[in-house]
Design goal:
heterodimer; A: 221 residues; mainly alpha; 0% strand; elongated; B: 226 residues; 9 helices
Chain lengths: 221, 226
C-alpha cells in the first residue's frame, strides 16, 4: 500500500512537477482551441460537399471520409510529422498536429453534420423554397439550425474524443499535458506526475462525460 | 519535386518488397490485439451492464466511476501509467499485455454504457411481464430484455469498437511490434519514407472494410426518423 502511495500518489513529486504540468495544460488547451474550430469548420464543409449536385464531388468526398476514418489518428500524425519531411515539407509539431487532426476530425464531424442535414425532412426544404429563399439561404437559415440541434449530442461526444486525441501530440514531442507529465516521470522515475495529469484530464472531461450519459439515458427512456 | 523523386522517396520498389514481411508481422499483431480486445471488452462490458441491472447501489456506484473514468481519460494515459508505473510495484507486464488490458477496459466501459442505455430503453412493462411468467433475473435479462435492447445499441457499439481497435496503434509508444511500430523502425533503418507508406496501406487494408461494414450496419439498424 505504501509502495502504491509512493509510486503513484507522491505529493512532493506532484508539487515539483506542477509548474511543468501547468505549462502542458496550457499547451493542451491551445491545441484544443485550434483543432476544435478547425475540425468543426472542416466538417461543415465536408458535409455541405456531400450534399453537392455533382456526383463526382460527392464520391470524392465520401472516399476521403472513408480514408481518414480508416487511418488511426496516430498513424496520420506520424505520416505527416515523420513522412512529409522526406518530401522536403517540414512542419512544426504544432502544425503537424493541427493538420493531422483537421483531416481526421473533419471526417468525423462531417459525418455527424451530414447525418444532421439528412435528418431534416424534405418538407422543410420545400417550405423554405416557397417563401422565396434560395439554396444557400435555405441551408444557412432553415436546415443547418435544425440539423445541428438534432445531432448536438453527437457533436459534444465527438468533441470529448477530440480533446482526448490531443494527448497523441505527446508522441511528436509537443509539450502538452501528457508529454509534460511523461517528462516529469522519466526524470523522477515516479508515476505521480502522470497520475496528476490523469486527474486534470478527468477534471476537464468528466462533466461532459456525465452530461453525455444523461443525454443518452434520457433519449433511451 | 518531380514524380521520379517522389516515387523514390515514398514508393521505392525494393523497399516495398523488403518491408512487406515486417509490416505483415505487424498486421498479425495488430489483428491479434484487436480481436483479443473485442472479445474481453465485450464480455466485461456485458457483465458490468448485467450486474448494474441488478440495482445494488454500492456496486453500481463503483461501475459508474469505472466507466466514467475510462470514458474521460485519453487511452494513452492509462497505457503509460500501467506500463511505466507497475514495474515500480514489482509487477512486470509485457507491452502487449498492457495494451490489451487497457484497450479491453476502455472498450468495456463504453460497451457497458451503451448496453445500459439499451436496457433502460426497454419499457418497464416488459420486466413486469417477464417476471410474471416466473422467469428468474438472468433468464429474464437474456431472453426478454437484452434481445430488445440490443438493436438500439448496434450502431454505437460498432462505431466504438472501430475507434478502439484503431487505438492498437498506440502500442507503438510502448514498443508493441504492431504495424506502426514496424513501419517507423523500418523508416529509421532505411532513411526512406517507403515503409511508412506500406504501413499506412496496411491500416487501410484492414480498416477500410471495417469502416464500410460499420457504415452499412449503422444504416441497417438506424432508427428511421420520420
Amino acid at each position: 500500500m505504501d509502495l502504491i502511495a509512493q509510486q503513484f500518489f507522491n505529493l512532493d513529486i506532484m508539487r515539483q512537477a506542477w509548474p511543468l504540468i501547468l505549462k502542458g495544460l496550457t499547451m493542451t488547451l491551445l491545441i484544443c482551441a485550434a483543432v476544435i474550430p478547425l475540425g468543426l469548420a472542416g466538417g461543415l464543409l465536408v458535409a455541405l460537399a456531400s450534399q453537392a449536385k455533382s456526383a463526382v464531388l460527392r464520391r470524392a468526398v465520401s472516399a476521403c471520409i472513408t480514408l481518414f476514418r480508416a487511418l488511426p489518428p496516430l498513424v496520420l500524425l506520424i505520416l505527416i510529422y515523420a513522412g512529409l519531411p522526406f518530401a522536403g515539407i517540414r512542419l512544426s509539431p504544432f502544425m503537424a498536429v493541427c493538420l493531422a487532426f483537421l483531416l481526421n476530425n473533419a471526417s468525423f464531424y462531417g459525418e455527424i453534420f451530414r447525418a444532421g442535414i439528412e435528418s431534416v425532412g424534405r418538407g422543410q426544404w420545400e417550405a423554405a423554397r416557397s417563401t422565396g429563399l434560395r439554396g444557400p439561404q435555405i441551408m444557412a437559415h432553415v436546415i443547418l439550425p435544425q440539423a445541428v440541434r438534432n445531432v448536438l449530442p453527437d457533436l459534444v461526444s465527438n468533441t470529448i474524443e477530440v480533446v482526448k486525441l490531443t494527448s497523441l501530440a505527446s508522441v511528436v514531442a509537443l509539450p502538452e499535458l501528457l508529454h509534460s507529465a511523461e517528462m516529469a516521470r522519466s526524470v523522477t522515475y515516479n508515476s505521480s506526475p502522470v497520475v496528476l495529469a490523469a486527474g486534470i484530464y478527468l477534471l476537464l472531461l468528466w462533466p461532459f462525460v456525465r452530461l453525455m450519459s444523461r443525454l443518452e439515458h434520457r433519449v433511451a427512456q | 519535386m518531380d514524380l521520379a523523386h517522389f516515387l523514390d522517396t515514398f514508393f521505392r520498389p525494393d523497399l516495398i518488397r523488403s518491408s512487406i514481411p515486417l509490416i505483415g508481422k505487424g498486421m498479425l499483431i495488430t489483428i491479434q490485439i484487436a480481436v483479443a480486445v473485442v472479445i474481453t471488452g465485450f464480455a466485461l462490458g456485458f457483465a458490468f451492464a448485467i450486474v448494474r441491472a441488478r440495482g445494488i447501489k454500492a456496486i453500481n456506484a463503483l461501475i459508474i466511476i469505472f466507466v466514467d473514468v475510462l470514458r474521460a481519460l485519453p487511452p494513452l494515459v492509462p497505457v503509460l501509467l500501467i506500463y511505466f508505473g507497475l514495474p515500480g510495484l514489482g509487477i512486470n507486464l509485457s507491452s502487449f499485455a498492457v495494451l490489451w488490458l487497457v484497450l479491453s477496459l476502455v472498450l468495456a466501459a463504453f460497451v457497458e454504457e451503451i448496453i445500459w442505455a439499451g436496457i433502460l430503453s426497454v419499457r418497464k412493462g416488459q420486466w413486469d411481464a417477464a417476471r410474471s411468467t416466473g422467469l428468474g433475473f438472468l433468464p429474464m435479462l437474456t431472453h426478454v430484455i437484452l434481445p430488445q435492447a440490443v438493436r438500439l445499441t448496434i450502431p454505437p457499439l460498432t462505431n466504438r469498437t472501430i475507434a478502439i481497435t484503431k487505438n492498437t496503434a498506440l502500442g507503438t509508444v510502448i514498443g508493441v511490434g504492431e504495424i506502426l511500430n514496424q513501419a517507423t523502425t523500418a523508416v529509421s533503418f532505411s532513411g526512406n519514407a517507403t515503409p511508412l507508406m506500406v504501413g499506412a496501406f496496411a491500416y487501410l487494408f484492414i480498416f477500410i472494410p471495417v469502416v464500410m461494414l460499420g457504415g452499412w450496419i449503422e444504416r441497417r439498424f438506424a432508427w428511421k426518423r420520420a
